[in-house]
Write a structure and sequence with these properties.
Elements (H helix, E strand, L loop, with lengths): L5 H5 L7 H12 L16 H5 L5 H4 L2 E9 L7 H16 L11 H15 L7 E5 L2 E6 L1 H12 L2 H6 L8 E9 L8
Parallel strand pairs: 2-4
Antiparallel strand pairs: 1-4, 2-3
Helix pairs in contact: 5-6, 5-7, 6-7
Length: 185
């Protein structure tokens, strides 16, 4: 079986931007245990969780737009506000919670944090669905948590550390389903 690539995934999701496929789905599709396409029905296969419990046919109805957003906690869904706090607690302060055991979690968040300090922006646009209570991130949550942690630092502390000035407006991929149905994780 051929190794999945962006094009083989785009064959199933023709309206999707390469960057969304490359960031979110391709790393999983390259895993020999997962492959591409996901099974139909998903059952309790790992793709069930990666695709947020929605079948591939549902995701075919999602359209993506790269938008510049003032990325702050007030724009996040309740679920993602909680996620940001728990990731920061686990990765920055050593708290034991659901994120403690995420493989390479601390490294992913600190890498994103370092990139933000050095460049004043996110390394790549995270991927989110827009729901009534705010953005629900489906890829890039470590980057978002690092961004929020950085924004919470006092301006004086940022300046003293030699960090670059940030633009609070950052590009993110925002998905909307053509039917108007929300993801609601």
């Amino acid at each position: 079986m051929a190794q999945p690539d962006v094009q083989s995934i785009r064959d199933s999701l023709p309206e999707w931007p390469d960057d969304v496929i490359d960031q979110w789905l391709l790393p999983f599709a390259k895993d020999q245990k997962l492959g591409w396409p996901p099974p139909d029905p998903l059952g309790k296969h790992r793709w069930y969780y990666i695709l947020a419990t929605k079948p591939l046919s549902w995701w075919q109805g999602v359209r993506w737009e790269l938008s510049n957003v003032d990325l702050q906690k007030s724009n996040l869904s309740a679920r993602d506000k909680k996620m940001v706090v728990q990731m920061s607690q686990a990765y920055m302060f050593g708290a034991i919670n659901a994120y403690t055991s995420v493989e390479n979690g601390r490294q992913r968040m600190t890498s994103a944090f370092s990139f933000i300090v050095e460049n004043g922006r996110l390394p790549r646009p995270p991927i989110a669905m827009k729901n009534p209570d705010g953005f629900q991130f489906i890829d890039g949550s470590h980057r978002v948590a690092a961004w929020m942690a950085y924004r919470e630092l006092p301006e004086e502390q940022r300046a003293n550390s030699g960090a670059k000035q940030i633009d609070p407006v950052q590009p993110i991929w925002i998905g909307n389903h053509v039917s108007g149905i929300n993801l609601n994780l």
